[in-house]
Amino acid sequence: MNDIKLVNVTIDGVPLQVPKGERIIESARRAGIDIPYFCYHPRLSMENGANCRMCLVEMAMPRTGPDGTVTLARHPKPQTACSLPADEGMVVETETEAIVKARKGVLEFLLINHPLDCPVCDRGGECPLQNNTLHYGAGASRYIEAKRHYPKAYPLSEHVVLDRERCIQCARCTRFTQDISGDAQLDFLKRGADTHIGTFNAEAFSSLFSGNTIEICPVGALTSRDYRFQARPWDLATQKSICPECSNGCTIKLDHRDGRVLRVNGRINEAVNEEWTCDRGKFGLPSAISDERLTAPLLRDGDRFREVSWDVALGVVADKLKAAGKQSAVLAGPKLANEDLYALQALFHGGLGSNRSDYRMGARHSEVRDAAAKLFGPDPMPTGIAGLEASPWTLVVGADLAVEQPMLYLRLRKAWRFGKAKALEVIPSSAPANTHIGAFAWSSVRYADGGLAEALRSACAVLLAEMPGLTTSPEVIAWVAAGTSPADGIASRRMAAALSVGPGLILVGEDAFSGPDWRAGLVALGHLAALTGSMGSVNLLVSNCNDRGADALGFGDGQLATAGILAGAASGAVPALWIAGADPVTQYHDRPAAIAALEQASFLVVSDIRLTATARMADVVLPSCSVAERDGTFTNVEGRVQRFWKAFEPRGSASPDWLIASRLLQRLGKPSVWFGWRDVLEEVRSRVPAFGEVRFEELDKDGAMLVIQQVVD
Amino acid sequence: MAELQVLLQHRNVPGIDGIDVYESHGGYAGLRAALGKERQGVIDEVKASGLRGRGGAGFPTWIKWNGLPKSGPAQHYLLCNADEGEPGTFKDRELLLKLPHMVVEGMAIAAYATRSTNGFAYVRGEFVESAAQLRKAIDQAYRRGYLGRNILGHSDFCFDLHIHTGAGSYECGEETALMSSLMGERGQPRLKPPHGPLPVVSGVWGSPTLINNVETYACVPHILTHGGAWYAAMGTQRSPGTKIFSVSGHVARPGNYEVELGTPLTELIELAGGVVGGALKAVIPGGSSVPILPAEKCAGVTLDYEGCQAAGTMLGSGGFMVFNDKTDIVALMRRTAQFYAHESCGKCTPCREGTRWMSRVLDRITSGAGRMEDIDLLLSICDQIDGRSYCPLGDAASWPIRAGIRNFRHEFEHWVRHGSSPISGFVPPVRSHGPASVPGRQE
Amino acid sequence: MVAASAGRFSEAGLAQLTEIVSHYPDPGGAILPALWLAQREYGGWLPAEAIVEVAARLGRPASEIQGVASFYTMYNMQQRGRHHIEVCTCLTCGCLGAYEVIDELERILGIHLGQATADGEFSLTEAECLNYCEAATVVQVGERYFGGVNAENAADLIARLRGSEECTPVSLSNAIVEAIVPGYFASSAHG
Ligand SMILES: Cc1cc2nc3c(=O)[nH]c(=O)nc-3n(C[C@H](O)[C@H](O)[C@H](O)COP(=O)(O)O)c2cc1C
Ligand code: SF4
Ligand code: FES
User: Fold this and answer.
1) CATH for C83-167, among 3.40.30.10, 3.90.1170.40, 3.30.360.10, 3.40.50.300?
2) Given pLDDT bands bounded at 50, 70 and 90, which one contains residue B441?
3) How open is the CA angle B397-B403-B407, to the nearest 5 degrees?
4) The domain defined by B242-324 carries CATH number 3.30.450.20
5) Closest partner CB to B335 (pick from C31, C80, C90)
6) CA dihedral defined by B251, B254, B257, B263, rounded to 10 degrees?
7) Beta bridge partners of residue A424, listed in sequence order
8) Partner residue opposite B435 with nearest CB, options C91, C126, C182
9) What is the pTM of this model?
10) Minimal CA separation from C159 to chain A, in Å
């Protein structure tokens, strides 16, 4: 990165050194000079930008005359600072009389057709158009002709509402769907003053990332159906948080009022989500944590539950756990924080002497992970999410990344868009014809049911044939030779060509190894990774919020896994079971087995934020807190530990799981030294080597990475 | 000064659109002459001719040609701007219709000089007949070995020429919008210096790209056949050569006239048979985008880039429109504003909103509901567009209106005061707002 | 390469599309010509299915194709009259009688600007400069320009057009495709 050339520019008389080619609007911002804008967005392409003309500045460049004298040549027209690349000697003025007039003119133009319905607009109070008009606009309009009219509040999708009258044609949303999400669902129609945005044939805007367009729209043209008319921005409080809806750990902002999350917005984090969110998190989270919440402990009373005090409830639970002792067990759910998981471990290991804990609900999940860990090591995403951009190729096996790992998908797409990476896809033939990655993949190899190993083998065969110098073992050569003819010759060939450049990244979806022949697939993947020098970069992606944290904490390393625990509950071998934030009745791969087991369990305590199907079967139900009502940390798919903040008080007497565990420890006569969640985190750091670098003080920034454990042979 | 026909000399020769007749009248001699030279020699010849682009801006042609990379991989594109849409201009249409080989030959010479391997003639969609003529010429040129591989046996010269038609958009004549349109996009302009690369550095599909007007290419065979010095001897020192003017309006013999640059404006009117239907009131010398000249300012004006500029207007594309004293200037400006509002691509705020606003204000004035302050409002809208739009269409929309008001303010005031035309008996058309409203189109 | 998909393109149309795509380094370049082809194959306009077919054959999003098609005035996003009459009313024509021609055409056809006759035979609209100003007033119908049209001969024009197979949106689109697609020799010369 040391080949960036610095140039000298002067903005409003301030001399600056900036990277050559940096857009002047950015240079100015760093010097504390604000240039107003609408269409500019640093993550969107310039090609369809520079259209609003709000950021006009005056510009001059030095010119050397024939006699060698250098004079400053003023450009006859004002230039858009958003697209103007800094160059040596450039002199920029942002507040001349001409510029002040130009801004007034642009604002007048933008408002002549604008409905000026700010009082009923969701954007009111946080609207760049309002704000810029206040700062730079003229007091009155001279427009007396009829305004442009379109239907108001047109539903673009179940989430997004469009008001074309408010649109200023800045092309931010269209560029978002073209540049960032890649689904290209929004585009402009017609031209001139009739230009407006739309989807093809007015079909639903079904992007997985549609919510981002609401955030980047600089006016109230795109608004959220859920949030519409819910609040004025100045009535909302905002808290920093982490989205718990998948394993990516997007940094978000929760906008809340009266103990309800009304809106989720992205929060800038270059390491993870840049500033984006996916619709699952953005629109799913508020309702997931707002509806039908538990507010007090419940105790079974025949067929019904009775509200009881914490004292009564914890008394019952403590008695049962104490009685079960080391035979007791715990199952943890996907959204428990690192602190919860650790405290539960402390309760069961330390307090009860039990070594029975797990968090996994998939069929072959633990088996596959164990085998993979042996082969590839336990934490192989050395590049991290951001590092995807630097990997020459990324091979995605058996996953629809856009759905399962939204931010990994956006990074991979970005890596491809800037020409730095090739996306390779190996997917079952049952996958939809147009996969998300398929739209830009260098190669898409499809395999029939059970054919993953063969598909990988044919790529290895091509690789070996084309690269005679490749060092490998006789074992691999024999394995390759034993292969049948390639399933998809051309695609394998293309894939091998990409793989041959050196190590890259391999991302494996949870479903890749769900079939009975998963071992062969895993072995094949191992050979392919070895051949390409990517052994340390194979990641078996986890999909739940804190699966990585649970894994690193050893929550799945007990002597009984989920299946064994459930079986024990049914047989009586597990006389007391705590299910914390999990719902095996709906999530376990073999649901009937889970239901049968829980029906027969002798004592079941469930802690959760809602009365789930599993909780309905419990003897005691304990209300716990959502991500918005407490502090804590999650560990995302790449092993990044990130902090979330309490936004408002818990409902009723709900309590985070770590605190419930702590109170139970007390009742067991083994009081902890935790006065707050920070104390738990501190203990995790000192006791669990993987968390050794997780310092509280650093969590506020980009989070902290787990220490990668070396494989011990 | 009379007509001086270089390009148009043989336009009425029967069969000149076919390759045999074209060759028998000296056709493709320019290409042969070019191939006898080094590539730089061809560029030098064009430099010596002083040829300036005929698409409107008058940019020296050789500088563009010289700007393409002279070594390295030669995936260069050569584009012919045949999107002629400037109101009042019809020279490119006639050149393609009657003398398509001259354009093909000029492009082949330019391709050789600039190491271009692929060419596209971007022909305006409405010019179906001209496109068909060009198709025929291209096919014939391929058969004779003037296009395709190893042209005229030259081992290092291959050039494929294709036709790409537009589909109804004036803005696509702007060179970067043309490139967008060629690449299959909405016809909107692209970044240019200082914001983005010059087309000759990175144009279509990221490759160096040369774009010239039809007439510009048509000049090239003559320059190569007779030499740059011969061409430069015509016209004026700074505006050498001849230029085709498309003369229309209130003249006896409208049509394309080729004259030396520097010819007095009034002579061109005479050439076209003089003003009919009344006395001369005004001239728009270079297409609708250039400022209108009232009759009293026409005397002494010479038709060359500098002469027009000195008179407060521009040579532009050579779309020379003559108006007699029965012409209502306000109605003319209203129609002009309607054109730009309809053709604005909509990308940038000033042009998208400003052109429609001007058009509406002028609608209102010519409906009799004008206010005195509307006249200054129009000038102010012009100021708010001019120089601030993404591409020059915004400028081109404001110049004529501003000049119309400056030169004929009394007519605007008359409209406002009386609610009717200063021209007795003139009733402005009460119309929809132009072609935007077409059958069946509803929202 | 032209992706196969269900659609209405004829064999000949597909062959022409394959040829056209070969002119461009990127299939995106073929969008405009492919829309011309589609307009011919779909009977003179571009219903949603035509957009979908072009999008599928060129591997582009349908939203983009619709955005492109709706930008240009010569792609018919709605069905037009069988003879779509466009009268230039721009500067020169406008000063030399174009509006009288429109008045007369409206009278003869019994429709207003922006409308189509009940039998679908004619539709009428204004055009921007057709750049044949020497022959003002100029009228475009399909692939043909008619110069020197005036209130007196407007009826003759209508009589000549009525029932004709020429000067329709289909014949226009076809003429353009034929100009784009090279003769056999040219295509083999660079094939
Ligand atoms: C709005 C607009 C429309 C234009 N239309 C045309 C046109 O129809 N034909 C043309 O040759 N140039 C047109 N131009 C000029 C081109 O941008 C460009 O300057 C020209 O093609 C360069 O060729 P030349 O150097 O041979 O003149 C237009 C420019 C603008 C701004
Ligand atoms: S000035 Fe702006 S809106 Fe007008 S044509 Fe150019 S880019 Fe489009
Ligand atoms: S921010 Fe620069 S033009 Fe819009």
Assistant:
1) 3.40.30.10
2) very low
3) 155
4) no
5) C90
6) 10
7) A395, A443
8) C126
9) 0.95
10) 34
| The CATH number, out of the four listed (3.30.360.10, 1.20.1440.230, 1.10.510.10, 3.30.160.40), of the domain defined by the range B329-418 | 1.20.1440.230
> Which of C1, C52, C63, C70 would you mutate first to test chain A, the one with the most A CBs within 10 A?
C63
Q: Which residues 187-246 of chain A have a CB within 8 Å of chain C?
A: 187-191, 198-201
Contact B182 C131 (CB under 8 A): no
Ligand 1 center from residue B175 Cα (angstroms): 6
Counting ligand 3 atoms within 8 A of each CB, the residue from A35, A38, A44, A106 with the most, and so the one to mutate, is A38
Which residue's CA is minimally distant from atom 6 of ligand 2? B391
**Domains of chain A: residue spans and CATH:** 6-108 (3.10.20.740), 111-224 (3.30.70.20), 298-362+546-705 (3.40.50.740), 381-540 (3.40.228.10)
Residue in A50, A25, A697, A369 with CA at minimum distance from that of residue B390: A50
Q: Cα(C123)–Cα(C102) distance, rounded to whole angstroms?
A: 12
pLDDT digits (tens, 9 = 90+) for B47-61: 999 999 999 999 999
Both tokens assigned to A94: 């942002």
Q: Could C90 and B147 be called an inter-chain contact, meaning their C-beta atoms sit closer than 8 Å?
A: no
Give pLDDT tens digits for C163-175.
999 999 999 999 9
Pairing of strands B209-213, B242-249: unpaired
Helix then strand then coil, in percent of chain C rounded to 5, is: 50, 10, 40
- Measured CA to CA, the distance from residue A2 to residue B196 in angstroms comes to 24
| Residues in chain A with pLDDT values less than 50 | 1, 711-713
Average the pLDDT over B78-92 and give the result.
98
Task: Give residue ranges with CB within 6 A of ligand 2.
Answer: B 171, 188-189, 344-348, 351-352, 389-391, 393-394
Report CA(B315)–ligand 1 centroid distance (Å). Answer: 13
Q: Is pLDDT of C4 > 60?
A: no
Q: What is the pLDDT of residue A514?
A: 82
In angstroms, the separation between the Cα of residue B373 and the nearest Cα of chain A is: 10
